[in-house]
Amino acid sequence: MILGESAVSLNMTQQIVASVAMMLTTTVAVRIGARPLGELILRRERHYTLVLGGSLLMTVKPRSVTVLSFILVFVLAMIAYAITGGILGILAGIGLGLFIPTVFIKHLREKRLNKLNDQLVGGIQTLSSGVRAGLNLVQALELVANDSPSPLRQEFAHMVREYEFGISLEDAMSNASERIGSGDFGLLFAALLTHRERGGNLGETLDKICDAIREIQRLEHRVDSLTAQGRATARFLGAMPAVVLTIVYFIVDPIGVEAMFSSTAGKVIIAAIIVLNILGFLWIRKIMDIDI
Length: 292
What we know:
Structural class: mainly alpha
Helix content: over 70%
């Protein structure tokens, strides 16, 4: 009887010590990680400010996107832990949660940039027509801002608005070139800046720029056509492990797949497969990314 009470008392003491140690460890981890976490949040918000408010000209608050990103990280980490039951699953969920918003915003930026490049030739033609009709450069830019489709209209309207607020036209065009991040727009604004410094026939200059950009875009589309098979191969190879794993689980050997997710060695193998798959996918995409 006395031995039983002593064992119970010892177990309670061990539980109390373990709880206190866990509380102290959590407190120390929070105090140590609070500052790096705050710096990470500030970096993410600065990045969202530059991309959303600059490149995309969106009115979304960076703090809202940051909060949604951390909620996504937490949800994916919990889902991964429920599936794998280990620390590797949590780390994979956190990595995926940090990866998805970056990829999504990059996709929005690339989609907008492609639209801008496709609309640029028409915008230059409108600009040239306005100059030939007797408008000055600012009035021709306003014509593009009023008559062009979105998002080209938004970019030129933003540039004209900066000029109306007191920024010089040269600085407004430089800001637009940095904000858009396109070589074609950089070529256009460089030609306009050169014309303002040295003068000349602006209509003829715009026609030459339009022809040059049209030829550059034709070559880029040609390169995209030639590398389409390689990009498709990268997507297929990236999806192949998940497809094969699904087939094996539902048709061939479901017990073996469950054992892979439940054992430590299997989890290590899965983590290595995911890392190597991502590296291979990025490698193929890098090879296929040809810059003219």
